[in-house]
Amino acid sequence: MKEKSFTPNTTIEKTDEGTLLHFCFQPENEYQNFVVDTQPVFENIQETVIGELKKATRSVRVAMAWFTNYAIFKVVKEILRKGVEVEIIINNDLINNGGYCLNFDELIDKGLQLRLAEYPRFIHNKFCVIDDEVVITGSYNWTIFSEHLNDEDIVITRGSKVMVDKYNERFDVLCEKYGSPVSSMPEKVPERPEYDRNSFRTYITEESLFLSSLDDSGEKKKRGYLKMAKKLSPLHPGVASFTREEAFSETITTIDSNIQKADKRIQTGQKRIEDLRQKLEYSDKDERLKLRDKIKSHQREIVELKSQKKEYVQQKKFIKQTEDTILQGMSGKFRINLIWDSIDDIDLHFVLPNGKDIHYGNKKETYNGYTGELDKDENVSSPYTNTPQENIYWKDGLPFGEYAINVSLYTFRSNLSSINCRITVEDELFGTKILPLVIDTNKYKGGSNFTVYRFSYTENGRIER
After folding, report:
1. pTM of this structure
2. Which pLDDT tens digit goes with each residue over 156-207?
3. Strand, helix or coil at 461?
4. Assigned CATH for 3-178
5. What angle do CA 205, 430, 391 make, to 5 degrees?
6. How far is CA 419 from CA 160, 283, 309, 347, in A?
7. Half-sphere exposure of 192 (CA within 13 A, CB side)
8. Ramachandran angles phi, psi of 111, nearest 5°
9. Where are the alpha helices (DSSP H) in 150-284?
10. Which one, out of 26, 99, 131, 336, has a CA that is 20 to 30 A from the CA of 233?
C-alpha cells in the first residue's frame, strides 16, 4: 500500500517498508532516492519551525527565497545570542530588502553569515539544516503570508546522514555561487526590467495590514502596523480606510504627549527658580541682580507653559466632546470640515496652489479639472448655533499641489476669551487627520486669516509643511 504527498521538489512515498523520499535539486536535475524518517507538516508551520530552531545548539544553515516573518527572525536572533553558528542565503530583492523589511544588519552584528542571491540568479529554495541532524524543506517561505494565508507544507527529516550531507552539499554549492557573506544589507536592489517597485511595496503593506488584523496585543501596536502600511503604500485600499477612530486616537495621544512635555518643562523651571533663590542668600549685590533677572525669565516661561498646557487640555476636552459629532455637508473624495463651540462666525479658507481661495466669498473653484466647493457655512446670520460647522469638499478628489487651510474669526459675538475648534481632513486616498485648534479671540477678533495646516499633496501622501 502506498500514500503519496508532494512538495515542489520532493515526493514522499509511504510504503510498508518505511518512508521513501524522492527529491531533485535544480537546475542540475539531480534525482536521489532514500528511505528516511520524515514528518510532513501542513498546519502551524511557523510554530513547528520555531520549535526546531530553538533546539539548535551548534549550527543552522538556511536557504530561503523570502524571509519577512518577524517571529522567526526573533528566534534566529535568540539562537545567535546563544552562540549557534547561523548561515542564511536569501534573495536581494524588494521583498527582502525594500527599505521596510526585517533588519538583517541586526543579525549580522550578532554573527549571522548572510549571503545574497541577486538578479538574474535568484534562489527559490526553502530549506534549513539544523545541527547536521535535522533537515526542513518544502513550499514554505519564512513570510507572514506563507504562515497565515497560503496553503503550504514542510517535511522534517531527522537522523538521516545521507539527507543532511546532500542538503549541506547543496548549501555549499549555493555559497560558492553567491560569494562571501555580506557585512551589511546593500542600500540598493539591482534593477531588472520586470521589477514593479509598487507591487513589492504593496506586498509588504499587505503583510503589515494582515499583521494588524491578527494582533491582539493592544491598540498601540495595531496602530503601529497601520502606520507602517500607510508609509509603504498610501494608495493601498486597506490603508485608505485608516479610520476616523484611529485619527482621533492618534490626536489624543499627541495632545497627551504635549501636556506631559509642558508639565516636565514647568517642573524643570520651578526647580531652577528654587536653586536660584537659594543662591541669592550667598551672593553679592551685582550677582543678586543677575539672579533675579534669571528668576523672572523662568517665571515668564512658566506662565507661557501653563497657558500652553491649558490650551492642550481644552483641545483634548473638545476633541472628546465632538468625536461622535456627525459631519455636515458633502464628503466627496476629499473634504475639510470645521466645527466650533460658539455663536461666532468663523470662516474656513482653503488656499489652492494657484493662490485662489475657496471660502464664503468664493464658494466654488476649479483647479486642474477638479472642483472644490464650500457647501456648509453656519452662523452667518441668525438663528445662531453653539455647534456650527463649515464644510469644503472635492467630489472627484484633490489635484496634486501645495495647499493651506486657513481660518478667520469673521464676526465676534460671544465675548468668549477663546473658542474651541476642530478641523477634520477626510481623504479617500490618505485617510483622516484631526487638527485641534483654540482661537485666542483677543488676538484674532479683527477677522484676519491665519494658517492652521499647510501641506503638499503628492502620490506619496499628504506631506505637512
Report:
1. 0.52
2. 999 899 999 999 999 999 999 999 999 999 987 776 655 555 555 566 666 6
3. strand
4. 3.30.870.10
5. 160
6. 77, 47, 16, 13
7. 12
8. 115, 0
9. 161-178, 197-214, 219-232, 237-240, 244-280
10. 336
